[in-house]
Structures are given as C-alpha cells and as structure tokens.
User: Fold this.
Amino acid sequence: MATASSEPKGSINLRIEAGTRQLIDDAAALLGKTRTEFMIESARRQAVDVLLDRRLFTLDPEGHDAFLHALDDPPPPGPKLMALMRRVPAWRR
Assistant:
C-alpha cells in the first residue's frame, strides 16, 4: 500500500470570493499552516466524516435487537417491490 508521500500528486483549482480566501488564510495562519495545508486537512477531515456517517451507526441495546430482528425476519415484499423485481434492468434492454 502506498503512503501519502509516495502517491502521485494532482491539483485542484478553486475560484473563491476574496472574503472566503481571507478567512481561510487567517485561520491557516493561526494554526501555523499554509493555505494549501489548511484546505487539504479541512477537506480530508470533512470527507472522512461524511463517509463514516454513511457507514457507521450505533444503536442502544433495544434498537440493536430491533435491527437484528428486522434482518432475521424482514417483512414480505410489497407490490411495488414485486413490480420492480419484474422489470428488465436498463443495462439489459
């Protein structure tokens, strides 16, 4: 697996308002970082949060039991699901 320092680098070009750029520059300066370092770290942290939010969830014991029950004993398929399953997928048309 490649480390961050050995991966090829690319660029992202952004057009931002002067006020937003100054805000970013001020925040980066307070942390002793360059604008690029600040933006990359901020964007990376936000991306990880978004992905984890879609993959990781926690439940209390009652919710966990209900979740497992729903997995073990799902409701029967309704008419809309049955109709969907009878349709020919677009990639097979």
